[in-house]
Design brief:
single chain; three-stranded antiparallel sheet; alpha+beta
């Protein structure tokens, strides 16, 4: 673990992990640093950043609850994840997940292969948002930033989903897989601080808009790309005429302002923090 910063070396001493297996950094998000762990797994270590101190760190119990909820609601895309709790600080955690070195991110070049799966996932995601006030973040921090940059003129950045990867993309049987372990919460049970709820609300709203712009119609987008590449004199359209599912997505963007102030009661872990 000599390649890790002092904070992370000390943090990992509280867990039953093999320090010799911890390899180089393979990814870094707002919440976790992801290191290779052996040859077939990765280990996710919570970051000690200013953002996470403002947002509020998750406890091991909250992470396990979200993972169980994801397995129940999205079993077709959930990735096997092991939550290790600290020996002296049981609220602390690290995550062990399968390593997917050959998986492809979802972007405008790969989305056509999984478009039906992605649309089905988003329909379920919006339904859960309306009924349970939970939302699955499919963009991830890097995908969120890249997608916002893609809105700027003369940019080389392209929209992508970094929390969703495509397994077996080149083998003819592409399958979406989720590498994130947390849900966005819009509850008012006192479990999460105010900044946490504001960030989650903003993330959900912007994610729905970005999804509508970049991923809701693969066929329409591909048509636009082909038209542009053929140097047609007509201006390409980014999407086809909105389908029923697209209309539901657009309706969901405006829906939060009309939701009840007090959402349904959900189990609170405030007493475990």
């Amino acid at each position: 673990m000599s390649h890790l910063k002092k904070y992370y070396r000390q943090y990992l001493l509280d867990f039953a992990v093999d320090s010799e297996k911890i390899g180089p950094l393979v990814a870094k998000g707002k919440q976790h640093r992801v290191h290779l762990y052996g040859t077939k797994h990765v280990i996710k270590i919570p970051r000690a950043s200013l953002y996470m101190r403002s947002y509020g760190r998750f406890t091991a119990q909250q992470v396990q609850r979200d993972i169980d909820t994801i397995r129940e609601l999205f079993p077709e895309i959930s990735l096997q994840t092991q939550v290790l709790c600290g020996r002296t600080h049981p609220e602390r955690y690290v995550l062990i997940q399968e390593y997917l070195p050959h998986a492809e991110p979802v972007n405008r070049y790969t989305v056509a292969a999984v478009h039906a799966q992605l649309h089905s996932l988003m329909r379920k995601n919006i339904q859960i948002l309306r009924t349970q006030f939970l939302f699955l973040d499919i963009f991830g921090y890097q995908g969120f930033v890249c997608s916002l940059r893609a809105l700027l003129p003369f940019t080389r950045s392209r929209a992508q989903l970094t929390n969703l990867l495509i397994r077996n993309f080149r083998d003819g049987d592409p399958q979406l897989v989720l590498v994130d372990t947390n849900l966005s919460h819009l509850n008012h049970a006192g479990e999460f601080r105010l900044t946490h709820r504001f960030i989650d609300f903003g993330t959900i709203l912007v994610s729905l808009i970005l999804y509508r712009l970049f991923f809701s119609s693969a066929a329409g987008r591909r048509k636009a790309v082909n038209t542009f590449e053929s140097k047609s004199t007509t201006r390409p359209s980014c999407t086809n005429t909105p389908s029923d599912s697209n209309k539901r997505i657009l309706f969901a963007i405006a829906e939060p302002v009309r939701w009840p102030i007090n959402p349904p009661n959900r189990p609170s872990l405030a007493t475990t923090r």
